[in-house]
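# nightly structure sweep
# worker-07 picked up a monomer target from the shared queue
# config: single-sequence mode, recycle default, output format = structure tokens
# input follows
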Amino acid sequence: MSIERRPLKTRSTQWAQATARWLAQSGITPNQISLLSILMSLLSMVSFFYSHQNPLLLLVAALFIQLRLACNLFDGMVAVEHHKKSRLGDIFNDAPDRLADVFIIMGAALASTPQPYAIHLGWAASILAVLTAYIRVLGSSLGTPSFFVGPMAKPHRMALLTVAAICEFVFKIGSFSLPFLYWALIVMVVGTVVTNFRRLFKIKNFLEQSQ
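# output follows
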């Protein structure tokens, strides 16, 4: 089974194509880029963890979230557009993403620890995030298209945490602080539950219609 790629408009931009071309010429492999996304997510989690001591690390955490997404973009572009895909490419394309999701989401939970049940919310959001990918791949294994629908697919989750981290930083350096990351985790849990049900229903409907 070959894992389908998420449709992204970013792939067609000049800067993305130029960067992918440079990466392909540099000799770095798509699998190495995929593994680099784990490092970016770990650095985001560490930045979130120490943000209690230095609020500026909230911006650093947000930056590493975006670098993680950049890795997700370029591993596929180098593999497909520049014909560097390996036999293990599908494994490296999907498995590191699950670790990256957990590290970043739990980082946000650690940054929210003054709030009640922040860690519990982090684990719930992490499990639900991994479940979105499981349901998508389950559908593919049954012969359906890969359903990347939201409202809380991976790009939506990462955008939510990026914006929440920036907002929390802005308010922390102001006159008062608001727990934007904590609220983002609540939104993520609810939105990911909806996402999982939407994907399950799409798989169900596709299989019923193809009988």
